[in-house]
């Protein structure tokens, strides 16, 4: 382990399980103090298609995984749909740790539905999670990063936010991901725009998404069995790559987790940083509109 992030504090939203947990583990393995946050300390409820189901994973479990591996983590519950909790989260982190160097906007809400059948509540919650929340948290963290002289923001994007292949695949006709994908496309553009605004303050803003999909507890219901998936370690490593270079060297990228390491010849490690994993080439079925080193 290179301890690239020694002395730095990172906030990873939605890190009680899945992609967020993996990112939190990888950043902690490189020496960051990671603030693990989710809606509550209890297991989350997934509300989809009018029914609710408990999902595995808690803040405490992620903290324990990090600390057992020798890292340092702090648990902090915050409901990002609650404006008071959302607006105060960054200040709570700074008050607790004294600084905030890295913000990873990972938390989300996905309830796929074709447009004709989608409720306004589902539409509003999707917009809230993928546009309002990154805006509010980024706006709150920027003054602290400016004062520190550096900072890194990483938004978690999606291959669905890239223009779909033509002729349209059956997935695009039936998946119901249009609103989700539209918000991810907006998040990609938000990333590129804010990167320009804060470049001269040495604040890097990048976006990382799976090249295919990661079959997490929260996303498993939305991914067809036949859809190609990938190990989460490649995404976590790509996020790490966006969290330590000066902004002048790496900012404004929308990078994808198999394409970027493969093209940049970036070694990918296990989440504890101890083992180098084999290079993994993007599959032939990946969206051809993805650029190897990022959009």
Name the descriptors.
8 helices, 7-stranded parallel sheet, KR_dom, 3-oxoacyl-[acyl-carrier-protein] reductase MabA, 11 strands, Rossmann fold, secreted, SDR, 3-oxoacyl-[acyl-carrier-protein] reductase (NADPH) activity, two-stranded antiparallel sheet
Short summary of the structure?
It holds the Pfam family adh_short. With 295 residues, this protein is an alpha/beta fold.
Strand order of the largest sheet: 5-2-1-6-7-8-9
Order of helices and strands: EHEEEHEHEHEHHEHEHEE
Mean pLDDT: 93
| Sheet/helix structural class | alpha/beta
CATH superfamily: NAD(P)-binding Rossmann-like Domain
Strand content: 15-25%
Number of domain modules? 1
Structural Rg: 18 Å
Count of DSSP-assigned helices:
8
Oligomer: single chain
Which outline best applies?
globular
Largest sheet: 7 strands, parallel
Catalytic activity: a (3R)-hydroxyacyl-[ACP] + NADP(+) = a 3-oxoacyl-[ACP] + NADPH + H(+)
InterPro entries: KR_dom (IPR057326), NAD(P)-bd_dom_sf (IPR036291), SDR (IPR050259), SDR_fam (IPR002347)
Keywords: Cell wall, Secreted
Subcellular location: Secreted, Cell wall
């Amino acid at each position: 382990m290179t301890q690239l992030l020694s002395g730095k504090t990172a906030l990873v939203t939605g890190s009680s399980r899945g992609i967020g947990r993996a990112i939190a583990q990888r950043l902690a393995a490189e020496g960051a103090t990671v603030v693990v946050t989710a809606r509550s300390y209890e297991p989350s409820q997934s509300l989809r298609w009018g029914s609710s189901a408990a999902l595995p994973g808690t803040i405490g479990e992620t903290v324990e995984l990090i600390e057992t591996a020798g890292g340092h983590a702090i648990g902090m519950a915050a409901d990002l749909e609650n404006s008071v909790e959302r607006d105060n989260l960054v200040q709570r982190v700074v008050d607790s740790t004294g600084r905030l160097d890295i913000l990873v906007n990972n938390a989300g809400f996905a309830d796929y539905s074709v447009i004709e059948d989608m409720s306004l509540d589902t539409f509003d919650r999707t917009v809230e999670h993928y546009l309002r929340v990154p805006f509010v948290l980024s706006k709150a963290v920027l003054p602290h990063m400016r004062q520190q002289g550096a900072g890194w923001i990483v938004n978690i994007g999606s291959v669905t936010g890239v223009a779909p292949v033509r002729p349209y695949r059956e997935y695009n006709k039936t998946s119901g991901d249009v609103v989700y994908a539209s918000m991810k496309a907006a998040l990609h553009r938000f990333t590129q725009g804010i990167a320009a605004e804060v470049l001269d303050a040495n604040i890097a803003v990048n976006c990382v998404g799976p090249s295919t999909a990661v079959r997490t507890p929260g996303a498993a219901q939305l991914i067809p069995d036949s859809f190609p998936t990938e190990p989460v370690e490649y995404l976590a490593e790509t996020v790490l790559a966006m969290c330590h270079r000066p902004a002048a060297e790496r900012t404004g990228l929308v990078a994808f987790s198999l394409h970027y390491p493969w093209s940049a010849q970036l070694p990918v490690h296990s989440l504890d940083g101890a083992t180098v994993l084999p290079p993994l080439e993007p599959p032939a079925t990946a969206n051809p509109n993805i650029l190897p080193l990022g959009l």
